[in-house]
């Protein structure tokens, strides 16, 4: 059952541009919002390797590359491309009245 209090405001939808990544920090949770091909993806902003922030990384297609040690993740699933058993948390999101909300419980 969905808990309404787990949905928190993240960003105005118009601020999230195509082919970009925006870091938000909701209730102490670092989340990276990525807009690609008209879709939005919300993944943890902390690399599984050494917790480097992914926000400074590069985005190519649906792949976000960590700026610290070049670990690459699929923004759609959170999977680490070199070892699929390693995954970053991904989060549900929704848009309402031009605002993006994130479900801070891992989806």
List keywords for this structure.
107 residues; 9 strands; three-stranded antiparallel beta sheet; Rieske Iron-sulfur Protein
Corresponding CATH architecture: 3-layer Sandwich
Radius of gyration, CA atoms, in whole angstroms: 13 Å
Strand content: over 45%
In helices, the fraction of residues equals: under 10%
Main β-sheet description: 3 strands, antiparallel
Report the CATH topology name: Rieske Iron-sulfur Protein
* Whole-number count of domains: 1
Q: CATH H level: which superfamily?
A: Rieske [2Fe-2S] iron-sulphur domain
Overall form: globular
Poorly predicted runs of 5 or more residues: none
Question: What's the helix-strand series?
Answer: EEEEEEEEE
On the 0 to 100 scale, the average pLDDT is: 91
Instruction: Let me know the number of strands.
Output: 9
User: How many angstroms does the end-to-end distance come to?
Assistant: 13 Å
What features would you describe in this structure?
This protein has 107 residues and is mainly beta. It has one domain (4-106): Rieske Iron-sulfur Protein, CATH 2.102.10. It is built from no helices and nine strands. The protein has strands at 7-12, 20-26, 29-36, 39-44, 58-60, 63-65, 72-74, 91-96, 99-106. The strands form three sheets. A three-stranded antiparallel beta sheet has the order 1-9-8, with no helix packed on it. A three-stranded antiparallel beta sheet has the order 2-3-4, with no helix packed on it. The protein is globular, with a radius of gyration of 13 Å.
